[in-house]
Write a structure and sequence with these properties.
Number of domains of chain C: 1
Number of helices of chain A: 2
Chains: A alpha/beta (about 150), B alpha/beta (about 270), C mainly alpha (about 260)
Shape of chain A: elongated
Oligomer: heterotrimer
Strand content of chain A: 25-35%
Strand order of the largest sheet of chain A: 7-1-4-3-2-6-5-8
Distance between the termini of chain A: 93 Å
Helix content of chain A: 25-40%
Radius of gyration of chain C: 22 Å
Number of strands of chain A: 8
Distance between the termini of chain C: 53 Å
Structural class of chain A: alpha/beta
Order of helices and strands of chain C: HHHHHHHHHH
Structural class of chain C: mainly alpha
């Protein structure tokens, strides 16, 4: 009986420990073995400077997918980014995708502002409304140019 | 005594601890079925001698032969086989504090035999009964008194029914009654199981009571090996001092004494 | 004058010789234990007993210290990050420092305090009470029966304890960051998930396994060689050996920490 008890406690310890290891490696380090179903959307930006493959996409601060590809549209000279979303995230047609920076110095990420129409985007569709990267240099030069104008 | 070859033969044994020589050319034999007492004061080297007999220490020179095994040069396997035929009862019992008394006593059986649980239980209870420890099986060693620990240690030493039993200081730290009980137990073991028993002690009374022969050690040298009467009638002054409980230094050399006190040397 | 110089050199020499001897003993001790993995029946029962002692009974201490460690680093990082307007990095910062560095080291320190010291004292007392002599005389191999289960138990238990420490630390960080200072839950959790990669978790696991081995190796050896290394083999010897074991295992652990970090970063 005493023996049983000891084995039971040790067993419990091992299970709890393994659960902690699993939580760290699967949920936090994202080791797959588990991969949610997902679908792709594309979005065109006039400037995607600083956005990298693997950057995350969030809605209201929650991660819902990541940027899986960025290429140049050689005719329009636009940046075409492919986004991969978790399957349970449904987006309407008038969704806005904007490139933002985490903090002042942080990485670029994509912020999705959900729209209001009933028409939903399906795999392969394009998010029409986009906001490009805001470059601090551009902002600064615009400000200088404007102030030149006035004087 | 008998014509059979001795079970223990020690020849020209020398032993050092660092620079200090502990044993000087020790020679003796122990016959089958004998109770041999190794006697000596503290610092006489008797514990070192015991450790050599148990192959816990390696001597500087000399040979020890136990049951036709050269203990000094034996390989691990031979030594292990020999040790399964030997039992050792240590001074404080040396029971494992993390196990119950019962588990302690069963340990050698569990390790060296394929006996089933029930048989092992019965054998352990038999030995505990013999040592007047029936019913103490499930206690932890910390809950036993000094005398009980020694008896439990003895029970563990004889659990495998060894040919040869070593007993370190059976009566040290015990009251006279308990000590007498242990002496009787030792005699009972020899008569019941025909063991050869080597007892290391500094207690005269118990030595005289149980010994067939006594080996007296002084400063690492054997002063005398003989029967109880031979020891009692010996005219060696050191043995007489031991028997009559006289102090070692009969007369003090005044000059040396002063020198020792003032310079710390001498 | 010259005489005292020779004496000094002599004593330095003898200290060096003793240190080298001691290192050699530690090495052979470990080799002896490891060699018992082959050709012997694996001591499962004893290992489970030791898993209980090293692992299960250390869990409460690990949970409490993990929680507070997580809370305090969240507090510190929050105070720093808010100055850069980057509090959304809080989760990442807390998890990163816990998983890669603080978790393994703090958990190992807790194990040294609770298990290493107790083990060294226990083994030292066994030595004092002639229990190892008794084992030898019963032809029971103490490396196999006493040492191996404890070492194996540490190798299994310490990484698990570290993982528990990490998880509770992340929980503590959540309490301070999200519940007290109002950092967004999404930022805290996804920040963590986006920053931490498998390599970080692996580094934590490797470190903690090695730490567990180092702690028990040193503690067992210092207790086992009590009669050789301590002048006074009594109670004072046990306390001295325990102190040595705690100090040496802590220092050696940090050394191993540096080596593993420099190899894996």
């Amino acid at each position: 009986m005493k023996r049983m008890n000891l084995n039971f406690i040790v067993g419990l310890f091992i299970i709890a420990g393994m659960a902690a290891v699993a939580y760290l490696s699967v949920t936090i380090a994202g080791v797959s073995g588990y991969s949610k179903d997902n679908y792709q959307l594309v979005a065109k930006f006039s400037n995607s400077s600083g956005l990298k493959k693997g950057a995350f996409i969030e809605i209201a601060g929650v991660k819902v997918g990541k940027v899986t590809n960025i290429v140049l549209d050689k005719e329009a000279f636009e940046s075409v980014a492919t986004f991969t979303f978790d399957d349970d995230v449904a987006l309407s047609e008038d969704t806005i995708a904007s490139i933002r920076t985490a903090g002042i110095l942080g990485d670029k990420f994509v912020k999705i502002s959900p729209g209001a129409t009933d028409e939903m985007l399906s795999s392969g569709d394009e998010i029409i409304e986009t906001e490009s990267s805001i470059s601090i240099e551009e902002l600064v030069s615009k400000y200088m140019f404007n102030s030149d104008d006035k004087s | 005594m008998t014509t059979t070859s001795p079970i223990i033969t020690v020849k020209n044994l020398n032993s050092h601890y660092g620079e200090r020589q502990i044993l000087k050319n020790v020679n003796f034999c122990v016959q089958q079925g004998e109770i041999r007492v190794i006697m000596g004061g503290s610092g006489s080297g008797k514990s070192t001698l015991l450790n050599h007999l148990l192959a816990l220490l390696v001597p500087t020179s000399g040979s020890i032969n136990i049951d036709d095994v050269d203990v000094v040069n034996a390989d691990a396997k031979t030594l292990s086989n020999l040790r399964q035929k030997m039992g050792v009862a240590f001074q404080g019992g040396a029971l494992f504090s993390s196990m119950t008394v019962g588990e302690n006593i069963k340990l050698p059986l569990k390790h060296h035999t394929q006996l089933d649980e029930n048989t092992i239980d019965i054998m352990a209870r038999l030995k505990l009964e013999l040592m007047n420890l029936a019913g103490f099986e499930d206690l932890m060693p910390a809950e036993l008194s000094g005398g009980m620990l020694k008896r439990a240690g003895l029970a563990r030493a004889v659990i495998m029914d060894p040919k040869l039993l070593f007993f370190d200081e059976p009566s040290a730290g015990l009251d006279p009654v308990t000590s007498v009980e242990l002496d009787e137990l030792i005699l009972k073991l020899r008569d019941a199981m025909n063991m050869t028993i080597v007892v290391v002690t500094h207690e005269l009374e118990s030595a005289f009571k149980i010994a067939d022969k006594i080996t007296v050690l002084f400063d690492g040298e054997i002063a005398l090996t003989g029967t109880v009467d031979e020891i009692k009638n010996s005219d060696d002054i050191r043995i007489q001092n031991l028997i009559n409980r006289r102090s070692r230094n009969e007369k003090i050399n005044a000059e040396q004494y002063i020198k020792r006190l003032t310079t710390g040397q001498g | 004058m010259f005489n005292s110089l020779t004496l000094t050199i002599e004593s330095i020499g003898s200290v060096v010789v003793r240190r080298i001897e001691s290192a050699g003993r530690l090495g052979t001790f470990l080799a002896q234990i490891v060699s018992r993995l082959w050709g012997h029946k694996f001591p499962l029962g004893e290992t489970i007993k030791q898993l209980h002692f090293v692992g299960a009974r250390t869990v409460p201490l690990i949970l409490i210290s993990g929680l507070f460690t997580g809370m305090v680093i969240a507090l510190q990082f929050y105070d720093t990050l808010i100055r850069f307007g980057s509090v959304e990095l809080l989760g990442a910062a807390v998890a990163m420092s816990l998983i890669r560095e603080l978790g393994p080291v703090m958990a190992a320190l807790m194990v040294i305090a609770r298990v290493g010291s107790a083990t060294c004292a226990e083994i030292g007392i066994m030595r004092n009470e002639q229990q190892f002599d008794a084992l030898d005389c019963m032809a029971i191999d103490s490396y196999h029966y006493i040492m191996l289960p404890r070492l194996i138990a540490a190798l299994i238990a310490v990484p698990l304890l570290t993982a528990l420490f990490d998880v509770f630390g992340i929980g503590g960080g959540y309490i301070v960051g999200v519940l007290i200072h109002g950092v967004s839950e999404g930022a805290y959790l996804t920040g963590m998930a986006d920053t931490i990669v498998w390599n970080d978790v692996l580094m934590g696991l490797i470190k903690s396994t090695l730490f567990g081995g180092v702690i028990l190796w040193i503690s067992l050896a210092k207790g086992f060689y009590l009669h050789i290394e301590q002048k006074n083999a009594g109670a004072e010897g046990v306390s001295q050996a325990t102190t040595n074991a705690v100090v040496l295992s802590a220092v050696l652990m940090l050394f191993v920490d540096y080596i593993v970090s420099s190899l894996m970063i």
